[in-house]
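Re: Re: token formats

Sure, here are both.
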Amino acid sequence: MREGNSKVDPPFSSNDVPMLSGEESKVPPNLTSPSIPALPGGDLVLESTPISINAEERNLTEHHLAHFREDPVRFMMQMGAFYQGTGWRSYKNYIGTRIFYEGYTEELKERVLNSERVLYMIAYLAEKQVNLLSQTMPNATPKMIAKRKKKLEKELQIVANGMVDKLIADLNSVRFI
């Protein structure tokens, strides 16, 4: 918010509006993407190349030889282990960013409540309500309006807290999930 001005500035520009027309939403070809070779008859030749994100590749199924066509019983046993959360597919030692730890849910809730857009909407709604109040009460002083705006922002913050509590699942432990 600007000093001395009660108007709330949006945290995003008008250029952030999603593109709806098909012509504007086309993505230009990437200069680094390889061209697809075509045969003289117009048929495409596709080569299987491994996808590597970090230049380190690991075959997770290398030591687990249970493939459905080769050994359906063993494959079903591994699927059972997957659903029970045991073995290499369990959540106790999974690959990737850790998401199940104490305080993770509170951290998520705090991030959402302190996000620029949520704070903007709270200030915007309070400002809108105060403007309606000042129109209905012509004898309202600026001090009274500012006090009412603060009160409205606190009430909207409580509503936002309640919504976030209901919308974000508890991800503090694997046992809960």
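Second one below.
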Amino acid sequence: MKSVNCSRHIPLSRVRKYGASPPRRRTMQSETEKVVQTQQGTKKDREAEEHEQAAEEHARVEE
């Protein structure tokens, strides 16, 4: 079982109807998925912040 970011797999038609988050049906699984997603999200946020900081430092060096 591979971990997948669910937001990538929502069909566009569904996004247009309901907005970004589809209706939740499976409560038991969605709880664990939320935990996994928040862990992945914080990791991605950290990587993005580090990348932004590095880019800013690089821009300063070039000036």
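Helices lie at 12-18, 27-62. The chain has a mean pLDDT of 61.
- S.
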